[in-house]
Specification:
The complex is a heterodimer of chains A (134) and B (483). With 134 residues, chain A is mainly alpha-helical. Chain A has a domain at 75-127: NADH:ubiquinone/plastoquinone oxidoreductase, chain 3 (Methane Monooxygenase Hydroxylase, Chain G, domain 1, Up-down Bundle), CATH 1.20.58. Helices cover 57% and strands 0% of the residues of chain A. In chain A, α2 (75-98) packs antiparallel against α3 (100-127). The model of chain A has no long low-confidence stretch (mean pLDDT 81). By secondary structure, chain B is mainly α. Chain B has one domain. Chain B contains 19 helices and two strands. A two-stranded antiparallel sheet of chain B has the order 1-2. The chains are: A mainly alpha (134), B mainly alpha (483). Chains A and B meet through α3 of A and α1 of B.
Chain lengths: 134, 483
């Protein structure tokens, strides 16, 4: 914990001044000043030449066509969900790999079982055609 | 902090039934890719479940509770008996759903593997001796059930039910996690027995935060069991789901909810029995009242059975309120009987469904006895049992629960329960009256299949056997729970 400014103030007994938080207050003030200062400096310095094309979402990209809210295939949701499952599998593998020495053969068998169960799930979604894009 | 890996190969033994069921679920997923006829998947599913059931049977003999995974997983008679309920539930559900799912055009192989995964979740819940394992099992059960509810993808009603169930289930999970985190923050442990010890050692039994954690957990389990005021999802979900799944989830998740409720209250909060009883008593009275009274106004039989199952949850809750192990015994005994009578009733509802005919209105039952005397007689048995009329098992179930509640000193609760039981008899007997005393409005043909006949034979026989010789079931329950 770094305390930037510590002011030893003599206070009346019984009153509490949260002097420990002074550094936080100073940081908040500075952050606000820097942010506002950057916006103000930009306003003063930059040239102002507004035209319609600048208001487009991607100024130098393709002109936008149609509504942004259109219906898209539900396949995306299946792929996203499967991603989460296998992502979590990878998350489990990391701590196991780190503690491999301590867990020993029992941990190895346990992990293989875990992966085996996921493998069955993988075969299932494959055969059901969840990866089939067309 | 150095953490020891205390998991050994011996820990595998108590979870063999769960592992078997998971393997069966995975095999079914792969089998579904190969075979075209989904009946084969269903039959393999039943066979696999029987193998897992055999595993539980082999593990039943242990007198002392088996503890595995560093005390997180416990296998005692209580857990084993609940597993028996779950196995019977899944087998009977598969039997009644094979033809039905075809009619609903939702005959997927995944249906059967999801049933396996859901049942595995329930079994983990029944064996959980740690709040984290409990949550794990609950989520496994709930996530599979959400999909099963929405399996009729083309039907808006089924989709609505799935979404509703999912949202309220997510809410209840949040409540459960909040309760767990509060309790963990106070006691520093998630183990149920550890919580009980810490509460005593730290002397925080009556503290408001402990109370709050307990309340949050009861709310979460109340959602799963559909106790009033957390029952609002039940009628809509039961109506929208495929009828076979309605049968499945009116027994399975409810039993699992009772299993964890009993275990958490008796193992983790035994010292706060007065406190949790004071929460559960008004909930039980409201549950019995709302279930019995609102069911009177229903015209759809699935909704009616939904409210009936809410009312039954109220009766079962009395067994927990009694606060003794005998009370717990009566609750478990009731659950087993409820399994047979409820699945039996839903089986008849399923039989009325055929291509182009819903068969869910009460009026569809008018004059059924004239065209289908046997089916009507079976429905009569199920309705008598649900209403609690001797010599059916429903009477025995209610009798033992009320007796234990009186033994525990809550005479007024037993009186209230009997009153609502009488009120609920009206809507059960109305169906019997429609079947036997009214003239048929239209021709009703029943959809039958061999497995359906097997399921009906088993359920009806069990209701009569347990009703006439109650000691058969009661001895098993007593052996399981009291040792």
């Amino acid at each position: 914990m770094h305390v930037v400014f510590v002011y030893k103030t003599t206070t009346m007994p019984g009153t509490y001044i949260p002097s420990d938080y002074l550094s936080v207050a100073v940081i908040i003030i500075f952050a606000a000043l820097i942010g506002l200062g950057a916006i103000a400096a930009g306003l003063l310095v930059r040239p102002r030449r507004p035209y319609a094309r600048k208001l487009m979402p991607y100024e130098s990209g393709n002109p936008p066509v149609g509504e942004p809210r259109y219906r898209f295939s539900v396949k995306f949701y299946i792929v996203a969900m499967l991603f989460v499952v296998f992502d979590v599998e990878a998350v489990f593998l990391y701590p196991w790999a780190v503690a491999y020495d301590k867990l020993g053969i029992f941990g190895f068998v346990e992990m293989m079982l875990f992966i085996f169960i996921l493998l069955i799930g993988y075969i299932y979604v494959w055969k059901k055609g969840a990866f089939n894009w067309e | 902090m150095e953490m020891e890996t205390t998991i050994s190969l011996l820990d595998i033994r108590p979870i063999i039934p769960e592992l078997t069921l998971i393997c069966v679920g995975l095999i079914l997923i792969l089998l579904d890719l190969i075979v075209k006829k989904k009946e084969i998947v269903a039959v393999v599913g039943i066979a696999g479940t029987l193998v897992a059931l055999f595993g539980t049977y082999k593990l039943y003999g242990f007198y002392e509770p088996q503890v595995a995974f560093g005390g997180m997983f416990v296998l005692d008679g209580y857990a084993n008996f609940f597993k028996l309920i779950f196995f019977l539930n899944i087998i009977l559900t598969i039997c009644i759903s094979m033809k039905y799912m075809k009619i609903e055009k939702a005959s997927f192989g995944e249906y059967y593997s999801l049933l396996m995964f859901s049942t595995t979740g329930m079994m983990i819940m029944a064996s959980a001796a740690d709040l984290i394992v409990l949550y794990l099992g609950l989520e496994l059960m709930a996530l599979s059930t959400y999909i099963l509810v929405g399996l009729m993808r083309k039907k808006p009603r089924s989709n609505e039910a799935a979404i509703k169930y999912f949202f309220l289930g997510a809410f209840s999970s949040a409540f459960l996690l909040y309760g767990i985190s509060l309790t963990y923050g106070l006691t520093g442990t998630t183990s149920l027995s550890g919580i009980a010890e810490s509460l005593n050692a730290l002397n925080i039994i009556g503290s408001p935060i402990t109370y709050l954690g307990l309340i949050f957990m009861i709310v979460a389990f109340g959602f799963k069991i559909a106790l009033v005021p957390f029952h609002m999802w039940a009628p809509d979900v039961y109506e929208g789901a495929p009828t076979s799944i309605t049968a499945f989830m009116s027994v399975g998740p409810k039993a699992a909810g009772f299993a964890v409720l009993g275990r958490v209250l008796f193992d983790a909060f035994p010292a706060m029995q007065g406190q949790w009883a004071s929460i559960l008593i008004p909930m039980a009275v409201l549950t019995m009242a709302a279930g019995s009274i609102i069911a009177l106004a229903q015209t759809n039989i699935k909704r009616m059975l939904a409210y009936s199952s809410i009312a039954h949850a109220g009766y079962m809750l009395l067994g927990i309120i009694a606060g003794t192990h005998e009370g717990l015994t009566s609750m478990v005994n009731y659950l087993m009987i409820y399994l047979f009578m409820n699945i039996g009733a839903f089986a008849i509802v399923i039989m009325l469904r055929r291509e182009g005919f819903q068969g869910e209105d009460l009026e569809d039952y008018m004059g059924l006895s004239k065209s289908h005397p046997l089916a009507s007689f079976l429905m009569l048995i199920f309705m008598f049992s649900l209403a609690g009329i001797p010599p059916t098992a429903g009477f025995i179930g209610k009798f033992y629960v009320f007796m234990e509640v009186i033994n525990a000193g809550y005479v007024y609760l037993a009186i209230i329960a009997v009153v609502f039981s009488v009120i609920s008899a009206f809507f059960y007997l109305r169906i019997v009256m429609y079947m036997y005393m009214k003239d048929p409005k239209q021709e009703v043909t029943l959809t039958t299949s061999p497995t359906m006949s097997i399921a009906l034979a088993i359920t009806a026989m069990m209701i009569l056997i347990f009703g006439i010789f109650p000691s058969i079931l009661l001895n098993l329950v007593r052996y399981s729970i009291l040792g």
